[in-house]
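Researcher: Checking consistency across runs. Here is TetR family transcriptional regulator again:
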Amino acid sequence: MPAKKQLTKAAQTKATTRKLITIAKKEFSQKGYSGASMERIVKAAGMTRGALYHHFDGKQGLFYAVFCKAQQEIGRRIEKKTEAVSDLWDQLVEGCHGFLEASSDPDLQRIVVIDAPAVLKWETVRFVDSNIEGSGFSLLKECIQELKTNHIIKPLPVDALAHQLNGAMDEAAVWIARSTDTRLALKEAKAVLDELLNALKV
């Protein structure tokens, strides 16, 4: 019986944190970090501020949890794009396009592209991107390794190539977010990215 109660409590905690993250994600994406209200979040969740602080270390701690979930969502969207094609090279191209598309989605853009580098330390952003399971960077690195193993791309160092491509796409995502015509910016970013990728082919 005690074990059952512990499992139930753990399940309740998980459900509570999931609910708070879902509500907070909407608040952060619509209002931005500075404009987001903890009062609105707890009210929408039907909780007290004390309950929120029991699960998260303040506003920044909640934003960190939302950022991690947003990174995983980008990874899922990339995987969906790559699963639609079987050719390894096409998977790289579609995956990179998927990253730019996901990063341009207003629900994710404000959190990942605009606010995260300012709210969280740069080292924290890079750590999450590089280490969280299913992140865009981990998928990019895996794809590059496969392409290299199959002699589809030039025999370049995998880590160096993955970081430089990732950095270029991160900067493109920021440029798209600040553009007055985001649809055109996304289209142009994809076209330039394709030229960069083609230079890697054997």
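Researcher: Does this match what you'd expect to see?
Model: One thing to look at in this run: The chain has a mean pLDDT of 92.
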